Amino acid sequence: MIEVKNLYKSFEDKDVLKDICTVFEDGKTNLIIGQSGSGKTVLMKNLVGLLTPTSGQVLYDGRDFVQMSKREKVMMRREMGMIFQSAALFDSLSVLENVMFPLDMFSSMTLRERQKRALDCLDRVNLVGAENKYPGEISGGMQKRVAIARAISLNPKYLFCDEPNSGLDPKTSLVIDDLLHSITREFQMTTIINTHDMNSVMGIGENIIFIYEGHKEWQGVSADIMGSTNKRLTDFIFASDLLKEMRAAVTHKQD
Predict the structure, then answer these.
(1) Which helix (H) or strand (E) holds 45?
(2) How far apart are CA 45 and CA 162, in angstroms?
(3) Residue 235, Cβ neighbours under 10 Å: how many?
(4) Of 11, 80, 101, 195, which has the fewest beta carbons less than 10 angstroms from its beta carbon?
């Protein structure tokens, strides 16, 4: 579990995050949503230590990440997996070598053990047979699955995903969502996903945090969204006419 307490982040005289208090739960897909510029990316960067909060706490199972020494933070990051928006694979390394990279850096496994672990992770994301290909030889969806395999190679307790469906078609996005959701359940990780994808919100949003102008405006599950009376949330979620029609239909059915 990750608990955020009274988190503030300012840049010069501008408050970007304002008194954020929330909990990201184990074994669930926790989603951070909000408009561009709302502060959700800054929040994730504070969670993983790419930025330091102006004040407040980020507690990993009770351990305050903000107050840790540099060495303690390095050790803490070994418990984290990260999936970047662009997949961020090494073009000069094969798929297998990309997945092995964290193992080469941080594990004490033998070469054979590292290879087996990497192959097991590729199997988990349905990429058996692609281990000798290079990133430029596979599709964007496959690259994201390689990134997931790499992120779970060290069996992290915490998984962070920055716009994992960016640049993917809707069908492939659903595959990535299902994969992240099932892996989260299987390994009982605390998974945090920063997303604009409303399909992800409605499909796998087990704990959703809506950030508006730097503060937590709303928190709940996807089932609560249809009946929410929070206008800022509904304006954001139901921005398209199709989603507005879907919500109206559900509301009418309930009446």
Answers:
(1) helix 40-48
(2) 10
(3) 11
(4) 11
**Residue 45, both tokens:** 């960067």
Distance CA 215, CA 171 (A): 33
Give the Cβ contact number of residue 110 at 10 Å. Answer: 9
- DSSP string across 205-255: -SEEEEEETTEEEEEE-HHHHTT---HHHHHHHT-SHHHHHHHHHHHHHH-
* pTM of the predicted protein model: 0.88
Q: Which of 175, 229, 224, 231 is closest to 201 using CA atoms?
A: 224
Q: Amino acid identity of 233?
A: L
CA distance 118 to 127: 11
DSSP code of residue 157: S
Cα 64 to chain center, whole Å? 20
Residue matched to tokens 């192959």? 119
Q: What is the pLDDT along the chain (255 residues), one digit of tens a residue?
A: 999 999 999 998 899 999 999 999 999 999 999 988 899 999 999 999 999 999 999 999 999 999 999 999 988 988 999 988 777 899 999 999 999 999 998 888 999 999 999 999 999 999 999 999 999 999 999 999 999 999 999 999 999 999 898 888 989 899 999 999 999 999 999 999 999 888 898 899 999 999 999 999 999 998 888 888 999 998 888 874 445 555 555 555 555
| 3-class DSSP assignment, residue 138 | coil
Which amino acid appears at position 255 of this protein? D
